[in-house]
Write a structure and sequence with these properties.
Blueprint: E1 9-13, H1 25-39, E2 43-48, E3 63-66, H2 71-81, E4 85-87, H3 92-104, H4 107-110, E5 114-115, H5 120-127, H6 129-138, E6 146-149, H7 152-161, E7 168-172, E8 182-184, H8 187-200, E9 206-210, E10 216-224, E11 230-238, E12 251-253, H9 260-277, E13 282-290, E14 297-303, H10 308-317, H11 321-329, E15 356-362, E16 383-389, H12 392-401, H13 424-432, H14 438-447, H15 452-459, H16 463-480, H17 489-497, H18 502-509, H19 513-523, E17 528-531, E18 545-549, E19 563-567, H20 578-593, E20 597-602, E21 617-620, H21 625-635, E22 639-641, H22 647-658, H23 668-675, H24 677-687, E23 694-697, H25 700-710, E24 714-718, E25 728-730, H26 733-746, E26 752-756, E27 762-771, E28 775-783, E29 796-798, H27 805-821, E30 825-835, E31 838-845, H28 852-859, H29 863-871, H30 876-879, E32 890-896, E33 917-923, H31 926-937, E34 946-950, H32 956-968, E35 972-975, H33 977-985, E36 991-992, H34 1003-1008, E37 1014-1017, H35 1026-1037, E38 1041-1043, H36 1046-1061, H37 1069-1075
Parallel strand pairs: 1-2, 1-4, 2-3, 4-5, 18-21, 19-20, 19-22, 20-21, 34-35, 34-37, 35-36, 37-38
Antiparallel strand pairs: 6-9, 7-8, 7-9, 10-11, 10-13, 11-12, 12-15, 13-14, 15-16, 17-18, 23-26, 24-25, 24-26, 27-28, 27-30, 28-29, 29-32, 30-31, 32-33
Helix pairs in contact: 1-10, 1-11, 5-6, 13-14, 18-19, 20-29, 25-26, 31-36, 32-36
Length: 1077
């Protein structure tokens, strides 16, 4: 059946900000869908709130709305654009839930919008636990014994009915990444978890389920078309047993330990499942669990949409799931669509791969001290790395060295000391509890000789995997006995085939990396590159998508064309996320447009940069000096871009240059100067700019002495770190001593930087582009919070909202002078502070910043794309960008935080970045732009109700005006005694509440009764006091607005006023761009 001609325009809803459980894999799938549908001639209408995505670039859809993802905004978009259809399956859980909400509210029917890909009934059947269970039982598939409940009392009854034993699994309905779920081991824990799950479920529904702890877990990525043709794209096996969320488990594709019979049974069950649920066309992810003792197989759950694992499955096989899903939704069948990789076989051919893929999650527990680091059924990872190898061992080791967390393979991890092995009881205790570090403790257990059977009984990890890892450990022992200059070639080849890097081997052989490389070359053990071809080499691959290995055949054939390597950012983490991938993608687009061949190197399966058609060639490889320089050498690249991938490539820049890599754009030496205190101070003195008093320290005692000389408060931070890792503001020596060891630990061997902290200074970020001669300001962003909040976490306004023209000119001149002195070719970000009308330079980064996508959307100019052209030799004049753009509207960037995933952690904004994503609010009115940003980040600003205000003593006088404004807007004010007394003295009506522990009712009681709609609470110190954090934790759990600075509280007041005075309006980016002309 050809494509449908009765449809002209299709609405796609994105997934919103990057959060744990829903990351940039949905930018990848959304971007694919937009391209696929436009390719077929459909008018694509895109709605998303995340400006950092490729999909929200204006050229990817005909109409692009960066607006809050809620029913109110989407109805206005539908009224304006009148789409014929809505494709609900490509925007993660957010897109799916909103599509359902629009259907249930009658909005789709009212405007004649058809759900395509999956109908309302299918979505409900796949997502509603009880309906899904009934559907599976109807077709004879086994499910875990369970019951769906809506109250704690019902949950207690259900627990008895499914067996009455603990542990029991709690799964809230319609939540992301298992949020609110977990494993309850006792009655008290059970009641708490059910109550929390009911709160977090948008439908107040929780599944109480028989615990399958220790069972094996598998995923099947399947597709179906309107002809009822079904195919399995990829089978995925969890390394960890049931009990760890699949997003937090190491996963392997294809499934390694299923027999052919078991695989065929699971395949048949997958097809039966997708048919019964009723997903008409497109992809679905189905999760199974198998009892390793009895073979009993149960269906755990199904996502009736493109899932988080779909990106992994697409990258693992080369099969573009989202693209094919979009085309199936408009009428095509699988046999009518070609396989993009082979261009000979149809999409109805099931992918078959002759290699192994390993995905390893990346965690950020160090950002949230005090939280439980146990891995459970609620997802906690912030990113992931993927590696491809000819064997499990090879891909496993490559995946770990792709993590960029100190691991250089399965062995040699910075935090694990194997010289003094713990006793057996300690080793078993360390591997019994699943954590991010368990796999390294597992290695120590293997080194200690604990039998495989005992390790399996303790961890539930399949013996096949354990035997594979034991073989790696045994080879390590053998290698330690060798000398590099006499190392046998066959043994060296085996080590490389098993994933050992030259760095690993140098440690095992007690020699240099160069000596290992020289020995490899002497023995003829050279790196080979193989193509990902979806069909186990049965057909020729036409898409150059490579991975390294050590075999007999090298499928890399370098062209004679000029080529530039683009080094990606690796796995997402807090501080280095999708914004940098955005810049890498733009670099590839820009260079391809002018005929330069692009070579992308990255290890992140979630991203658009690792889509096989983003660049001319894609290498799915670890971002290490060894791996990057080998690709550069064999491809005969003419240059490499390091300034777009965040800190990962920048850290390697000087070493890459020493290895013969030509780094284009700002030189590694000039990048280094911006980080070097002494050299950078000389530049500032030369151009007459100030910076806060500062110094460096190489030891703890030296830091204390130098802090005293500078004068408190002092900002402490490690050098060469993204995301504010290890940054603290300390107000006295006691506070310094409590954190200084942690600061030194972040970057061992590097100096710690000390700066005089400018209390209550206004902070400004400036993004600039330069060709080495001319520089142009891309955007100036003013932080709503005072200095002291990491720029990645701060709420920002563009253009600056409270600076006069004289100060803006001073900022402009300072930025141009810095670009000139640092010889910037490409992008530069400068962070300024203004204190008492005096300008200070806080930091200069001659690279892409995380605000580049945001600024580019605001000014309608692709800064990263232009910067790549400049690095390739163009000038700003040639690109037609010589003057600053001044938008006649306001743009607010708001951050999104994962505090709900890390109970027990401090909920506060600080110099250390903690946000996972961002949203944008655009409007001609600043108050409305801020209100939109809060709607998009959630929770939205309340329009009525009760506000609790409790602020530190220094803030009390200023809080009076905020309370007065809120009162005039119709809110009722509640406070504890200290703040209440000040409000009463200033004739503001207030109801006093007891402090926690001093009586009842407290604000916690009111929060639990849903009687508080907003909280204004400024912390008393660097870390919120216990009771302050209790209040904030409860507010996060209840989805209540929290303002932790008075400046953000004032912005909230302005936003509420705007919402009361004007109706919400929506406007597409394409129309905003016309306002710039």
């Amino acid at each position: 059946m050809p494509k449908r001609t009765d449809l002209e325009s299709i609405l796609i809803i994105g997934s919103g900000p990057i959060i744990i459980g829903q990351a940039c894999e949905f930018d990848y799938s959304g971007t694919q869908a937009c391209k696929a549908l436009r390719e077929e001639g459909y008018r694509v209408i895109l709605a998303n709130s995340n400006p950092a995505t490729i999909m929200t670039d204006p050229e990817f859809a005909d109409v692009t709305y960066i607006e809050p993802l809620n029913v109110q905004a989407l109805e206005k978009i539908i009224e304006k654009e009148k789409p014929d259809a809505l494709l609900p399956t490509l925007g993660g859980q957010t897109g799916l839930n909103l599509s359902l909400d629009l259907a249930k509210a009658g909005i789709l029917e009212k405007h004649g919008v058809e759900l395509i890909g999956a109908k309302e009934e299918a979505i409900n059947k796949g997502e509603d636990r009880e309906l899904f269970k009934a559907a599976m039982l109807k077709i004879g598939l086994d499910v875990a014994r369970s019951d769906t409940v809506n109250t704690v009392e019902e949950a207690l009854r259900a627990q008895q009915e499914i067996g009455g034993d603990f542990p029991v699994i709690i799964r809230p309905s319609f939540t992301l990444g298992g949020t609110g779920g977990g494993i309850a081991y006792n009655l008290e824990e059970f009641e708490e978890m059910v109550a929390k799950g009911l709160d977090l479920s948008p439908v107040r529904q929780v599944l109480v389920e028989e615990c399958l702890l220790g069972w094996k877990e598998f995923e099947m990525e399947v597709m179906r078309d309107h002809k009822d043709q079904c195919i399995v794209i990829c089978s995925i096996e969890n390394f960890d047993a049931m009990g760890v969320h699949t997003g937090d488990s190491i996963t392997i594709a294809p499934a390694m330990t299923l027999t052919d019979k078991e695989y065929q049974l699971m395949r048949d069950a997958s097809f039966a499942c997708i048919r019964e649920v009723g997903v008409e066309t497109g992809g679905s992810n189905i999760q199974f669990s198998v009892n390793p003792r009895t073979g009993r197989m149960v269906v755990i759950e199904m996502n009736p949409r493109v899932s988080r694992s779909s990106a992994l499955a697409s990258k693992a096989t080369g099969f573009p799931i989202a693209k094919i899903a979009a085309k199936l939704a408009v009428g095509y069948s699988l046999d009518e669509l070609p396989n993009d990789i082979t261009r000979e076989t149809p999409a109805s051919f099931e992918p078959s791969i002759d290699y192994v893929v390993t995905k390893v999650p990346r965690f950020a527990f160090e950002k949230f001290p005090g939280t439980d680091v146990t891995l459970t059924s609620a997802m906690k990872s912030v990113g992931e790395a993927m590696a491809i190898g000819r064997t499990f061992k090879e891909s496993f080791q490559k995946a770990f060295r792709s993590l960029e967390n100190g691991a250089i393979g399965f062995s040699a991890w910075k935090h694990i000391n194997e010289d003094n092995l713990p006793d057996k009881a300690t080793l078993l205790a360390n591997i019994r509890k699943p954590t991010a570090e368990r796999v390294f403790h597992l290695r120590l257990a293997l080194v200690a000789g604990i039998p495989i059977e005992e390790l399996y009984a303790t961890t539930g990890i399949d013996p096949w995997f354990l035997h594979q890892l034991l073989q790696i450990v045994e080879l390590e022992k053998l290698l330690r006995e060798q000398q590099v200059d006499t190392l046998d070639g066959d043994l060296l080849r085996r080590a490389k085939e098993w994933g050992f890097s030259d760095h690993q081997l140098s440690l095992l052989l007690s020699c240099t990396i160069k000596e290992v490389r020289d020995r490899r070359q002497h023995c003829g053990v050279d790196t080979q590159y193989r193509l990902v071809d979806t069909c186990a080499a049965e057909f020729e691959a036409r898409t150059p998508y490579f991975y390294s290995s050590y075999g007999d055949e090298n499928e890399l054939i370098p062209s004679d064309q000029k080529k530039i390597m683009i080094i990606g950012g690796g796995p997402n983490r807090i501080g280095q996320g999708i914004e940098f991938d955005y810049c890498c993608v733009h670099a590839s687009f820009a260079l391809r447009e002018i005929g330069i061949e692009t070579v992308m190197v990255n290890s992140n399966p979630e991203t658009v940069s690792t889509d096989y058609d983003t660049s001319d060639k894609l290498y799915f490889e670890p971002l290490t000096l060894e791996d990057i320089s080998e690709i550069y050498r064999q491809e005969k690249c003419d240059g490499a871009i390091v300034q777009f991938g965040g800190q990962t490539p920048l850290t390697l820049a000087l070493d890459l240059k020493a290895a013969g890599v030509h780094v284009i754009g700002t030189t590694p030496e000039d990048i280094e100067i911006a980080e070097d205190r002494k050299h950078f101070k000389a530049i500032l003195d030369k151009i007459g700019l100030k910076q806060p008093s500062n110094d460096i320290a190489l030891a703890v005692d030296e830091a204390a002495a130098k802090a005293a000389a500078i004068g408190y408060p002092v900002l402490l931070r490690p050098s060469f770190v993204l995301g504010g890792r290890g940054m603290f503001i300390v107000y006295d020596e006691e506070e310094l001593k409590s954190v200084v060891d942690e600061v030194f630990d972040v970057a061992p061997g590097k100096p710690v930087l000390l700066d005089k902290f400018l209390d209550e200074a206004i902070e400004i970020d400036v993004d600039c582009i330069s060709d080495g001669t001319l520089s142009v300001i891309g955007g100036m962003l003013q932080h709503i919070e005072y200095a002291g909040v990491h720029s990645g976490d701060a709420t920002m306004v563009m253009p600056p909202h409270s600076l006069d023209e004289s100060m803006i000119n001073t900022l402009r001149e300072a930025t141009h002078a810095l670009a000139r002195e640092l010889n910037v070719v490409g992008l530069m970000n400068v962070q300024f502070a203004i204190k008492d009308d005096e300008l200070f330079v806080l930091e200069v980064n001659p690279r892409a910043s995380r605000t580049v996508p945001f600024v580019s959307k605001v000014i309608g100019r692709p800064l990263a794309k232009m910067a790549a052209r400049l690095m390739a030799g163009a000038t700003l004049k040639e690109l037609g960008f010589t003057e600053e753009v001044h938008p006649p509207y306001w743009a607010v960037k708001e951050s999104v935080f994962p505090f709900n995933k890390f109970p027990g952690a401090s909920i506060a904004l600080s110099p250390e970045m903690k946000s996972t994503g961002e949203v944008m609010g655009l409007d001609k009115d600043l108050g409305m732009a801020y209100a939109k940003s809060q709607m998009a980040a959630r929770p939205a600003l309340p329009l009525e109700g009760n506000v609790f205000i409790s602020v530190k003593d220094r803030d009390k006088p200023l809080a009076v005006d905020i309370a007065r404004q809120l009162s005039s807007l119709g809110f009722k004010i509640y406070s504890t005694s200290g703040t209440a007394a000040v409000l009463k003295d200033n004739e503001v009506e207030v109801t006093e509440l007891f402090r926690i522990g001093e009586g009842r009712p407290t604000v916690i009681d009111m929060l639990k009764n849903d009687k508080i709609d907003m909280i204004v609470n400024t912390p008393s110190g660097q870390i919120p006091r216990k009771h302050e954090n209790q209040i904030r934790t409860e507010a996060v759990l209840r989805n209540v607005c929290i303002m932790t600075t008075l400046t953000s509280a004032q912005a909230a007041v302005n936003g509420i006023r705007a919402l009361k005075e004007h109706p919400l309006e929506v406007k597409c980016l394409q129309l905003y761009s016309k306002d710039l002309v």
